[in-house]
Amino acid sequence: DIQMTQSPSSLSASVGDRVTITCRASQSISSYLNWYQQKPGKAPKLLIYAASSLQSGVPSRFSGSGSGTDFTLTISSLQPEDFATYYCQQSYSTPIFTFGPGTKVDIK
Amino acid sequence: EVQLVESGGGLVQPGGSLRLSCAASGFTFSSYDMHWVRQATGKGLEWVSAIGTAGDPYYPGSVKGRFTISRENAKNSLYLQMNSLRAGDTAVYYCARWNSFDYYFDYWGQGTLVTVSS
Q: DSSP string of B26-92?
């Protein structure tokens, strides 16, 4: 099975900060990597698919990059509504999927 | 508008069984692969099962042999039969629609809580 790791597991940041979250796969997954945002008590929401494609309606301050085993989610200027937990998910080994353990972004 | 509404969660004793349902609307249910994903309190997301449009099921090792996913296209419904439940199965269970063109979960339900405890 493909294992996913994320770093850091949590971070504290201020509004306006640039935030970078890293996701690593245990084997190459090409660009089959998605990013979701989850707020407490809510279902996850898709932000980025295919490593770098922005989902419709998602603000352009979110961006994704990477391929193979190493991927990055960047928030260019953190906004109050961005405080949440972020998960990566590999979609390479369809239909058997794995998520990363999550990165919690909270207020500094 | 696409909607997924889970039901059937509740409190069950270890070793017991529970059947979750997910009512789908706003799209052609039979044309989509569907999944169950769970989340224990304060923990991350864990993929639980999938069913293809032809009814082919898939499971991770943690639930294989105990959980059974099924679908009833005429009723636009997805099910998860959970047997031999353990404390570790306690979680919010989400049903999710899979976008097979771009390879992501595009719609999720609100979740239903399953608590396994004596």
A: SS-GGGS-EEEEEE-TTS-EEEEEEE-TT--EE--TTTTTTEEEEEEGGGTEEEEEE-S--GGG-EE
